[in-house]
Structure formats: structure tokens, C-alpha cells
């Protein structure tokens, strides 16, 4: 085991991720073009934004069909998978493949939030909280500026 540690660690410098997170309205197009020779236009960014979802509980996912089918990580859907299982068919243990759209199973208690638009509210928040502190500041933030 110990003889593998130097080998494993030698690959660490190669495993580099680009830094930063950006909102769709502030996407670093020039940086992406320079790094990957790919220049997404506004229509592409809009499609990607509308395909991105957040599941209640904090997981992310993506629409993968026009009918609302969402792909996400297994652990994000585990509760639903268990709820859809029966004594005869343990979907978590046996898996499940829908061969037709009519075979798809729905997660009735799962909430999915889709980003529709991005609005910069900085100026209104700064104006509403100017000169405030403590509880008054937090109350103004909660009120949404």
C-alpha cells in the first residue's frame, strides 16, 4: 500500500480544475475561448441556464428532455427511489430502466427549481440597508431591499 502513495501523489499536479464560479449573466466568454477554443453565444448560455435545476435539499441536476425528465446524482434521488420501491421490487437494489416514456416513474414529493432569470439587486439592497446595522440591517435584507 505504502509503495502506491508516491505514485498516487505524483498525479496530483495534473489534476487541476479551473478556478471560479460564474453566473450565466457574467460568464467569462473570452477566458473560455482562450482556454478551450469554444465561444458560447447568449442563446447557448440561455439554453444551459434553463436546463440547470436545483432540487430541494441542495442537489443540482439538468433537464434531459423537453418533457421534464431530470438527471441528477443517485444520492439526490435515494429517498424517492426507496419510496417507489415495493416488497416485490427494490429499485435501489435492483435498479430500474424505463424502456418507454410511459414506463418512467415520477417522484411525487420531489421539488425541482428552475432558474428563469438573473436580476442584479445590488443597488436596491445597498440603498435599503445603508446606515443600518444589527437587527435593522438583517430585517432590511429579509425584506428584500
Task: Describe the model.
- By secondary structure, the protein is of the alpha+beta class.
- It has two domains: 24-114, no CATH class; 119-145, no CATH class.
- Helix content is 39%, strand content 10%.
- The protein contains seven helices and four strands; from the N terminus they run αααβββααβαα.
- The chain has helices at 4-10, 29-36, 42-51, 74-84, 91-94, 122-129, 134-142; strands at residues 52-55, 60-63, 70-72, 112-114.
- The protein has a four-stranded antiparallel β-sheet.
- β1 (52-55) and β2 form a beta hairpin.
- It is flat.
- The termini are far apart.
- The model has no long low-confidence stretch (mean pLDDT 87).
- Assembly state: single chain
What's the gyration radius in Å? 22 Å
Biggest β-sheet: strands ordered side by side in the sheet: 3-2-1-4
Instruction: Assign an overall shape.
Output: flat
Helix content: 25-40%
- Based on secondary structure, the structural category is alpha+beta
Count of distinct strands = 4
Q: Could you list the spans in which at least 5 consecutive residues all have pLDDT below 50? A: none
Compute the average pLDDT.
Answer: 87
Q: How many H/I helices? A: 7
Amino acid at each position: 500500500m505504502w509503495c502506491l502513495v508516491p505514485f498516487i501523489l505524483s498525479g496530483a499536479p495534473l489534476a487541476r480544475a479551473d478556478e471560479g464560479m460564474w453566473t450565466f449573466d457574467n460568464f467569462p466568454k473570452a477566458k473560455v475561448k482562450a482556454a478551450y477554443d469554444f465561444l458560447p453565444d447568449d442563446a447557448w448560455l440561455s439554453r444551459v441556464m434553463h436546463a440547470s435545476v436545483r432540487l430541494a435539499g441542495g442537489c443540482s441536476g439538468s433537464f434531459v428532455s423537453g418533457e421534464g425528465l431530470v438527471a441528477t446524482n443517485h444520492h439526490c434521488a435515494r429517498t424517492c427511489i426507496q419510496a417507489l420501491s415495493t416488497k416485490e421490487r427494490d429499485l435501489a437494489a435492483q435498479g430500474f430502466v424505463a424502456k418507454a416514456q410511459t414506463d418512467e416513474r415520477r417522484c411525487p414529493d420531489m421539488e425541482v427549481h428552475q432558474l428563469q432569470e438573473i436580476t442584479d439587486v445590488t443597488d436596491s439592497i445597498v440603498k435599503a440597508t445603508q446606515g443600518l446595522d444589527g437587527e435593522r440591517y438583517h430585517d432590511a435584507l429579509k425584506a428584500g431591499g
